[in-house]
Amino acid sequence: MKTGSDLCRAATAALALSIASLTGVTGAAYAQDKNITIVVPNPSAINNFPLHVAIGEGYFEEAGINVTVEAVNGSASVLQSMAAGQAQIGNPGPGPLLGARARGEDVVFIYNQFPKSIFGLVVREESEVQGPADLKGTVVGVGTADGAEVGFSRAILTDVGLAEGTDYEFLAIGDGGTAAAAFLNDEVSSYAAAVSDAAIIESRGIPLREITPEAYLSFFGNGWAVTRSYLDENPDVIEAFGKALVKGTKFGMDPANKDKVLEHTTAGNPQEGEDREFAEALLAAIQDRITPLDMSNGYGYQPPEHWQMWHDSSVESGALSAPLDDLEAAYTNQFVEAWNAE
Fold first, then answer.
1. Residue partners of 237: CB distance under 8 A and separation at least 6
2. CA 137, CA 327: separation in Å to the nearest integer?
3. Angle CA(214)–CA(219)–CA(225) in degrees, nearest 5?
4. In terms of DSSP bridges, do strands 190-194 and 138-142 run parallel, antiparallel, or are they unpaired?
5. pTM
6. Dihedral (Cα; 228, 62, 12, 320), 10-degree rounding
7. 32 pLDDT exceeds 50?
8. Local confidence band at 8 (pLDDT 50, 70, 90 cut-offs)
9. What residues have CB less than 8 Å from 44, skipping those under 6 apart?
């Protein structure tokens, strides 16, 4: 998922947030010195407000784990960091994770943070384009060449019979402000925009119109993932992490806590909090995308049928050269009940 580089580029290097260890968690005694590095695909704190609320409200501290958050550029970099052992928990998109598994990397999605699509295919409001089929012969803007939005938009265009390289081209134009400039300069006819990107572009005086087919709005977005070896060796840490994240989500969804939430996200990314009006608008948009259509399973649950949709679209579009042998190995719901128990 991408956000505005012009608002928060200075935060990209690393968001070091050390949380002191405590013990005595209800139901389990976690040892001190549970140190985890979490890697996210962009420096936005509002996009990951549950994480920053959990840090600011001390939920990780209560769980007895020390958290360091580092921002990198896109899902591919997230997965590379995890594969290299530089991070224990990452926040990739489902498409890139499936691609990593196809390459033999045993990475597992553990928490569905965005049960609603975080991306949308958008055009300028005055554009003659009315739907994806009208993008034949055009250039489609994306944040990075290997980001989750590429697989999302490729699947949409494949659905209407358009082939990459023949009927359209992708162009990496960055995110937020740089994407706005690409629109103004007519470098692209459309853009695969994250919620935050669209908000930034429109704040620059460029009204947008979404042309995403309704079926694709149900494709879930980025979530939390670990390697299989880390999952097997550290279930206590994963349970503690998810509990803190769910608590952060519930706190952050309460309208009465809006000011406190923005205080925590601004601590995580000061530049992002400078424009209060924009920050409030982005928070509202992210809150909507984080809310499951069906709350019966609580936060973090991954409907198997939605994974099948991602998988089948990835195969059909060519993002996966062949179906995966075991799609169910790509995700797990084993911790969801425990995370939502409180």
1. 30, 34, 36, 65, 88
2. 34
3. 165
4. parallel
5. 0.75
6. 20
7. no
8. very low
9. 3, 4, 8, 196, 269, 272
